[in-house]
Amino acid sequence: MASSETALSFSRLGREIASPVIVDLMARALANSDLLSLAAGFTDNVALPRGLVGRFAAELTQGGLDDEPLQYGQNQGRSRLRELSCQYLAAQPGECAEAFDPAAMFISNGSQQALYLAVQALCDPGDIVLVEEPSYFVCLEMLRGLGLRPIGIPCEGDGAIQADGLAELLRELDSAGERSKVKAIYLVSYFCNPSSRSLSLGEKRAIARVLLDVGYEIPVIEDAAYRELYFDAPHPAPSILSMPEFAPFPKLYLGTYTKPFATGLKIGYGCCTHSEWLEKILCIKGHQDFGSAHFSQAIIERVLDAGLFQDHLAFIQKHYAEKAFVLDHALREGGLREVGWKWHQPAGGLIFWLRAPEGSDLRMESVFCKGCIEQGVLYVPGELCSASGGLWHCARLSSGALPPNKLREAAGRFVAQAGVLAQSSGSSGS
Amino acid sequence: MASSETALSFSRLGREIASPVIVDLMARALANSDLLSLAAGFTDNVALPRGLVGRFAAELTQGGLDDEPLQYGQNQGRSRLRELSCQYLAAQPGECAEAFDPAAMFISNGSQQALYLAVQALCDPGDIVLVEEPSYFVCLEMLRGLGLRPIGIPCEGDGAIQADGLAELLRELDSAGERSKVKAIYLVSYFCNPSSRSLSLGEKRAIARVLLDVGYEIPVIEDAAYRELYFDAPHPAPSILSMPEFAPFPKLYLGTYTKPFATGLKIGYGCCTHSEWLEKILCIKGHQDFGSAHFSQAIIERVLDAGLFQDHLAFIQKHYAEKAFVLDHALREGGLREVGWKWHQPAGGLIFWLRAPEGSDLRMESVFCKGCIEQGVLYVPGELCSASGGLWHCARLSSGALPPNKLREAAGRFVAQAGVLAQSSGSSGS
Question: Which of A44, A53, A61 to probe the B interface (max B CBs under 10 A)?
Answer without folding.
Answer: A61
